[in-house]
Amino acid sequence: MDLISEYDTEILQAFWVTIKLTLTSAVGAFVLGTIVAAMRVSPVPVARTLGAAYVTIFRNTPLTLIILFCSLGLYLTLQWKLAGDSIADNNYRWAVVGLSVYTGAFVCESLRAGINTVALGQSEAGRSLGLSFGQNLRYIVLPQAFRAVIAPLGSVLIALTKNSTIASAIGVAEAAYLMAEMNENEAAVIAIGAIFAFGFVCLTLPTGLLFGWLAKRFEVAR
Length: 222
Fold this sequence. Notes:
The structure is a single chain. By secondary structure, the protein is mainly alpha-helical. The protein has helices at about 1-40, 45-60, 65-75, 85-115, 120-130, 135-150, 150-165, 175-185, 190-215. The mean pLDDT is about 85.
């Protein structure tokens, strides 16, 4: 209890950074994953190849390596700035980019699995009505695909929440960064670990319950 009372403000701020990092990265990952999923089922061979290459590369590259490449390579070496001259803001935004790019590959595969559950006859019916590939995907296929993979997407979001701890490697002041700092200054390692473990459970458990409920609520009848 003494630890919590001593670091209560810092802990709340750190978890707030974790929440913002998760939500902003989730938006980027879902947008990017949807685009790549569309490429993977596209009738254009080049688009399919590029989509497959993206998924293969980023699913098999360690997230730590991607985050460090964004910060040390793109930001510090190439001087690609996303937030003026502030190192902390640039590292935060590059962490969002790294998490979005990495998680987007998993969103793509989940969504592609959902696309494969949509009956082929429905796509053919859309084409018979004169819909283009993009219109068919937008109005017929994707709405059903998203409903079919709500639960897997929830798992991806939970994994993203936990993966956000990797941002501490480039100095983003989220929960894992504060935990490491507290471990250096305090002897109660087990208590510190328990506090932050409980914090992440409080973040991920409601997410799992929410997406489980949504999956049952919007389940596609077959």
